[in-house]
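thread: overnight batch results

M.L. [08:02]
morning all. the overnight job finished for the chain we discussed friday. pasting input first so we're all looking at the same thing
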Amino acid sequence: MKIKACPRCGSTELSLSPGEAFSALIYSGNIMCKKCGYIGTPIEFDSKEDYEEFIKFLKNQR
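M.L. [08:03]
and the structure it wrote out:
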């Protein structure tokens, strides 16, 4: 199962970017993070372990 996350904060609470046509979103892949407001392409992880490593990396960067 793929996990999509915000590259800025790591949240998985994502939605389609507001103000864009649905068909354009399918091709652009843009999302909006509900936690930090990031709009752009999410990061996809192949496993929960990979996602957890990314979260650890983000916490160490702060």
